[in-house]
Amino acid sequence: MTVSDLFAPLTFLHGRPMRNRIMLAPLVTQQSEYDGSASEFDLDWYRQVSDGGFGLVQTGATTVEAGGIAYGRQLGIHDDSHLPRLREIASSVRAGGSLSAAQLHHAGHRGNPEFGGIPAPASSTTWPGIAALTTQQVERIRDSFIEAAVRAERAGFDGVSLHGAFGWVLSEFLSPVLNDRTDRYGGSVENRARLTMEVMEGIRRACGPDFQLGWRLSIERYGLRLEELREIAGEILHREMIDYLDLALWNSEQIVTEGAFRGQTMLSVFTTLPRKGVRVGAAGKITSAERAAQVLDEGCDFVLIGRAAILQRDCPRQVQANPGYTSPPIPVSVQYLRDAGLSERFITHLRGWPYFVR
């Protein structure tokens, strides 16, 4: 593949095509209002990245329940009161030429009480003194994801993406370490995948035929097992339950160090799966035009860009103009971020990543 291939349109099973192969990774910015409503800073951020040429713009983790919050100033989609500002985001992204997706999120056992979150573990052994979710509570969370997707459709988003990464609730249920349940949501691989798959099936039933559905999957840490995740992903791709799979890798070049796939790239474990009409993409330190094109060569249909988008919201346009493009090196100064147009709220969030802000 060449860099120019990044700018070929990409069709999906449902809805409109993506104008190019560069998707904005779902980035937490912690700049919303405390009730979960989008702020003026959110609106400005999504306007900037859509105008910057991304094919699809996802919101960062957006709460499907008030009790599922993980951070302060986290964007919400758990109440109809959020709809007016969400409509403004969806409208702004569409005006900029990008597809839009709300990333649906529930913190699970990592619900943060400091911000009104309620820890909701799959297992009673995760936190001392906190009981596992009952079967009925799991079903309530499932339904909250589905209701949030309906709300996103009402707001004008092209679709939603399920946050199934980093130990949040959907990821947590997939883990044999964090999920020791004995009901139909625990035990076998099939049972541990049930929550994710019921959410997918429910959204497909509840939303229109042009509504897109993505799934973000991480495959490291939190007790996750690579071989199991490949099996689950293979079934979801085979059944065409989603439009796109977003592989959230820490490094897109990472090599598997143990198990059945030792010596292979993490990426290849999933790109070699039959995918029918589902599109597969990856994130993970993709900071140059050359590396983005290589990821397509390695079997992906699209790439996801995070840190490069923070540094330059128009990085897709920069790549299109310059096939030798490389993102500015990090760490950067606070003043650099201010001059780039980021809000003080977003900058405060980024200060928590010492490798990013000096």
Short description:
This is 2,4-dienoyl-CoA reductase. By secondary structure, the protein is of the alpha/beta class.
Helix fraction? 25-40%
Query: Cα-atom Rg, whole angstroms?
Result: 19 Å
Count structural domains.
2
Under CATH, the topology of the largest domain can be stated as TIM Barrel
Strand content: 5-15%
The CATH superfamily of the largest domain bears the name: Aldolase class I
- Terminal-residue CA separation: 36 Å
Largest sheet: 8 strands, parallel, barrel
Low-confidence segments, ≥5 residues, pLDDT <50? none
**Number of E-type strands:** 9
Helix-strand pattern: EHEEHEHEHHHEHEHEHEHHHH
Q: Categorize the overall geometry.
A: globular
Main sheet: which strands, in order across?
A: 1-2-4-5-6-7-8-9
User: CATH first level of the largest domain: which class?
Assistant: Alpha Beta
Oligomer: single chain
**Annotated CATH architecture of the largest domain:** Alpha-Beta Barrel
Structural class assignment: alpha/beta
The average pLDDT value, as a whole number, equals 97
Provide a count of the helices.
Answer: 13
Structural commentary:
The chain folds into two domains: 3-327, TIM Barrel; 329-358, no CATH class. It contains 13 helices and nine strands. It has helices spanning 40-51, 83-95, 135-155, 169-174, 189-192, 194-206, 226-238, 266-271, 289-297, 307-311, 315-321, 334-340, 344-350; strands at residues 22-24, 56-58, 62-63, 99-105, 159-164, 212-217, 244-248, 279-283, 302-305. Strands 1-2-4-5-6-7-8-9 form an eight-stranded parallel beta barrel, surrounded by five helices. Helix 1 (40-51) runs parallel beside helix 2 and helix 3 (135-155) runs parallel beside helix 6 (194-206). The protein is globular.
